[in-house]
UniProtKB/TrEMBL annotation:
It comes from the Eukaryota. Gene3D superfamilies: NAD(P)-binding Rossmann-like Domain, UDP-galactose 4-epimerase, domain 1. Coiled coil: none annotated. Residues 77-254 form the NmrA-like domain. This is NmrA-like domain-containing protein.
Length: 285
């Protein structure tokens, strides 16, 4: 009853693996880079190289019954479909997909990105759970840590939007339930949101209080946001997709509407508590 976790040492994959291991459920990582947490078995795996697809099913001591799919945002169905089809023939019982919230990934013929993958899983009549988290709380570390540590500032295009950021630990718990006791979830495509609805100016204030120094929030243009994404090496199509998501937040209150969506599942870790927990990661040099 091994769970195969694709994507190597991703944030949600590692957190899920630890929950599964602690409860006695075997785990096998599938990694292109070979970077996996210590103490876990792994195989070489690359969605762009079909010759690696057999490796998880040939791993000694593992029978793959569950697959946690972490996929790239751009054209994920093209890469995932051949592996999903193979996994079905190998006896995989359930796929747990990390998708995303928002209109762009709603299931159906007009879906984009990972939404196309759970559309395919549904059309094939497969047993699956598509986890649809809102913006990760951990983005405060991945995206904004340098600005906070070096310049005491958070910058993005979200002037007034209020967002229920969801923590990785809460996403991992939902994935764990999807594998071990799916009946705990409200539905098979739960939208995962955090317990707090906060603006980035409120987040800056929370950082100020926790770090004991003023952290400010400033708004940048869409053009500046795109320029930054491209400077980070983000592909042009993905950069525009991410900018579109921020536009949807600011102009239409996309995340705020999720609080009233009956499909939503609320996590436990709030933004302020998360900031206190990760205080040391934002101490200036």
């Amino acid at each position: 009853m091994t769970t195969l976790i694709t994507g190597g040492a991703s944030q949600t994959g590692v957190a899920l693996a630890k929950l599964l291991q602690a409860s006695g459920h075997p785990v096998l990582f599938a990694s292109r880079s070979g970077r996996v947490p210590e103490g876990f078995d792994s195989v070489k795996f690359d969605f762009t190289d079909p010759s690696t697809f057999e490796a998880p099913f040939s791993a000694s001591g593992h029978k793959i019954e569950y697959v946690y799919l972490l996929l790239p945002l751009l054209d994920p169905l093209r890469e995932a479909k051949p592996f999903i089809d193979l996994a079905v023939t190998k006896g995989t019982k359930r796929f747990v997909l990390l998708s995303a919230s928002g209109k762009f990934t709603e299931k159906g013929p007009g879906s984009h990105g990972t939404g196309q993958v759970h559309t395919y899983l549904d059309e094939q009549g497969l047993d699956y759970v598509a986890l649809r988290p809102n913006w990760f709380t951990e983005n405060l570390l991945r995206v904004y840590a340098v600005g906070i540590k070096q310049y005491n500032v958070i910058q993005n295009t979200l002037a007034t939007a209020r967002i229920p950021l969801i923590a990785v630990d809460d996403i991992a718990q939902a994935a764990f339930d999807a594998i071990t006791d799916v009946g705990k979830l409200p539905n098979r495509e739960p939208i995962l949101i955090g317990p707090d609805l906060v603006s980035y100016s409120e987040i800056a204030e929370a950082f100020s209080q926790t770090l004991g120094r003023p952290i400010t929030f400033s708004v940048i243009s869409r053009e500046e946001l795109l320029k930054r994404y491209l400077s980070y090496g983000v592909p042009d199509a993905l950069a525009h997709y991410l900018a579109d998501l921020e536009d949807e937040e600011e102009n239409n209150g996309a995340s705020e509407a999720l609080l009233k969506d009956p499909r939503s599942l609320t996590g436990k870790l709030g933004v302020k508590e998360w900031i206190v927990k990760h205080k040391q990661d934002f101490i200036s040099a």
